[in-house]
Amino acid sequence: MSLSDQEKLRYSRHLNLPDFGISGQEKLKCAKVLVVGTGGLGAPLLQYLTAIGVGTIGVIDFDIVEESNLQRQVLFGMEDLGKSKTAVAITKLRAQNPFVHFIDHNLKLDASNALEIISNYDVIADGTDNFPTRYLINDACVLMGKPNVYASVYRFEGQVSVFNWRSNEGVLGPNYRDVFPIPPSPGMIPNCAEGGVLGVLPGIIGSIQASEVIKVITGIGVSLSGRLFLIDVLDFSNRTLNIKRDPKNPLNGKNPTIKKLIDYDSFCGINNVSNDLIDLSPLELARWLREDHDFQLIDVREAYEFDGGNIGGQQISLAKLVEFLHLIDQNRPVVFLCKSGKRSAQGIENILALGAKYSNLKHLKGGLLAWKKEVDPDLFLI
């Protein structure tokens, strides 16, 4: 697929690079890359993949833009609050580079759709922040024979690697399960919403992730396949760990035991609790409060969020919920809430994953954002 004169002008700084040139740029133009997640990592990753001229970019996310995203997700602004992340991202990216074709996957990637979606792309870039989806992406990539460019961030630290990539010499590199064979217990490692992340860190790691995508597509340089790069931006220390394929990995060898996608929530110890059993609508919670219903209300947001605006109850952050399990009543209904409903639902899953015998746990559906919309529009939220 040749470059137009306008594309040659746009990508002229690439065309002048040794060992890259027109051939490298044409490889980018022919490539199809799927970016899973449009958050802190996905935003810079998408912007650079668009700028460099990847021909087709698929964008997967089912979330909406929230104000707390703006500290690190530089693709979004105040005018985008409440809108679909994929729709906003693609609109802005198209304006950035009209030569790129975008595919909007405004959905949740799961075992029912992953293989079909991933089969249409050459390279998968994992910008997610939860373990079930990371294992799902890894297994789907192995089953479909696709390279998985992985990155993650937490507080001040980031890591990047390239999984399941077959080198030009035909050597297949390790995959995610070779590095992380067993997922951590639910709640042991908080996500960004719970543990925080330095705003510039996803930009740094997302840019490194983009450079690895370029290397996989064009064949230039030496990729991070077989290596895990780690960095701590507090002191800018970094190290690179060598990793190998593990013969005990259920995806490896001539007779792998994982031959199809599995239930990744269960694999990661997360209970699939029926939403009908745990959801409590804002109007129903308002009625409970109005009628002095006997229940315990727990706000799992951080203390600063709670202090910024709340509807009462006890504040126990999601990261500390398991530690303070003894404070959760077993003899009356317990309602968890947060800003959007994600952390409160995760809190219930974390508690049940420990084997705790609770049958009285509910969470505010849609969180305080839904409460603000349906009950109290004057509620201030951070």
Question: What can be said about this structure in brief?
Answer:
The chain has 382 residues and is α/β, with parallel strands linked by helices.
Number of strands: 13
> In sequence order, what are the helices and strands, one letter per element?
HHHEHEHEHEHEEHHHEEHHEHEHEEHEH
The amount of helix comes to 25-40%
- Tell me, briefly, the overall form: globular
CATH architectural designation of the largest domain: 3-Layer(aba) Sandwich
The major sheet is characterized as: 8 strands, mixed
| Poorly predicted ranges | none
Query: How many helical stretches?
Result: 16
CATH superfamily of the largest domain: NAD(P)-binding Rossmann-like Domain
End-to-end separation? 49 Å
Mean pLDDT: 92
Structural class: alpha/beta
Strand order of the largest sheet: 3-2-1-4-5-6-7-8
**Please, how many domains?**
2
Topology-level CATH name of the largest domain: Rossmann fold
Summary keywords:
single chain, about 375 residues, alpha/beta, Rossmann fold, Oxidized Rhodanese, domain 1, 2 domains, 5-stranded parallel sheet, 16 helices, 13 strands, about 35% helix, about 15% strand, globular
Please write out the topology:
Layout: H1 5-10, H2 12-15, H3 21-30, E1 32-36, H4 42-52, E2 56-60, H5 85-96, E3 101-105, H6 114-118, E4 123-126, H7 131-144, E5 148-154, E6 157-163, H8 176-179, H9 192-195, H10 201-218, E7 227-232, E8 237-242, H11 264-267, H12 275-278, E9 279-280, H13 282-290, E10 296-299, H14 303-308, E11 314-315, E12 334-337, H15 342-353, E13 361-364, H16 367-374
Parallel strand pairs: 1-2, 1-4, 2-3, 4-5, 9-13, 10-11, 10-12, 12-13
Antiparallel strand pairs: 5-6, 6-7, 7-8
Helix pairs in contact: 4-5, 4-10
